[in-house]
Amino acid sequence: MAGEALLDYVIGTQEPDFTTPYDINIIGEYNLAGELWQVKPLLDELGIRILACISGDAKYNEVAYSHRAKAAMMVCSKAMINVARKMEERYGIPFFEGSFYGISDMSESLRQIAKLLVQQGAPEELLSRTEKVIFREEKKAWEAINYYRKRLEGKKVLLITGGVKSWSVVSALQEGGMEIVGTSVKKSTTEDKEKIKELMGEDAHMFDDMRPRDMYAMLKESRADIMLSGGRSQFVALKVKMPWLDINQERHHAYAGYIGMVELVKRIDLALFHPVWEQVRKPAPWETKPESLAEAKVA
Predict the structure, then answer these.
(1) Do 24 and 85 sit in the same domain of this protein?
(2) Domains held by the chain: number
(3) pLDDT, mean over the chain
(4) Which sign does the torsion angle of CA 135, 139, 141, 142 carry?
(5) How far lies 150's CA from each of 173, 176, 224, in Å?
(6) Which of 101, 156, 184, 290 is most buried by a 10 A CB count?
(7) What secondary structure does DSSP assign to 58-78, as a single string?
(8) Where is the domain boundary, 236, 251, 266?
């Protein structure tokens, strides 16, 4: 409904001071923990201007003249796909659905942005410049990630999130060498679910609405090494004495872009190997037999 209101009463009501062949809109991106600011420097380097980001880090005037963009990227299709489709119908702005999470998805999004802009009239050399930036950034990111990858290889993750993050974070975690044992798809579209199947196989464990008791059982049975979710379900993991990492909108760390992927892997590593887990999993003093306490004192 908010998207429809923007289309009917805001978008198209103002004109930008100037336009360029490199103007884009990013739709359904919310700048969580400043994530857009980790992506924008690369776009700036390529000369690509974000005419409007709807709605993260947005200014009213930018949304009002966003109809003058040459291309658009759709990030969260569940919330804003109507905006992207109707702007294409009304103003001829082509769009694609992409993600800034994970190295391969980030690179593919940069390629798609460049490709659409060239199709809309931007100089073709934008494609080669984009590939050079991608090569440089991927090299730096993989060098940083490989240290953690050796430690995280084969670790099992239970992912409780929704929307576009369901498939984009799956892709990012797989790049870090981890295995996803299950992912929620409560807010995901049919297209999102198909992408998850492509990444995890046809037998992918997808949950429309995983109850706390089911999360608890999965973690208790050691079918996962860590849970990534929003803050509301963190206490399920902590009750099982299992590492947990905030992946939803309340988080304090940005995981988008190349440096964001490195940060995500780093945070998972810190959570998994924190010494507190070894301590809390030991029996409490009142759970230990008296003779064991005596032996411990002698030792």
Answers:
(1) yes
(2) 2
(3) 87
(4) positive
(5) 13, 9, 18
(6) 101
(7) --HHHHHTGGG-SEEEES-HH
(8) 251
Other CB atoms within a 10 A radius of the CB of residue 81 amount to 18
Output the CA torsion 108→111→112→118 (10° steps): -170
- CA 231, chain centre distance (Å): 16
Over residues 217-230, the pLDDT tens digits come to 888 887 889 999 88
Contact 233, 158 (CB under 8 A): no
Radius of gyration of the chain (CA): 22
Cα–Cα dist 53/35, whole Å? 12
**Domain of 217, in residue numbers:** 153-251
Q: Given the DSSP bridges, would you call strands 244-246 and 95-97 parallel, antiparallel or unpaired?
A: unpaired
How far out from the chain centre does Cα 24 lie?
Answer: 20
pLDDT in tens, 48-99: 999 999 988 889 999 999 999 999 999 876 678 999 999 999 999 999 999 8
Beta partners for residue 73, in sequence order: 26, 96
Name the token pair of 235: 């206490």
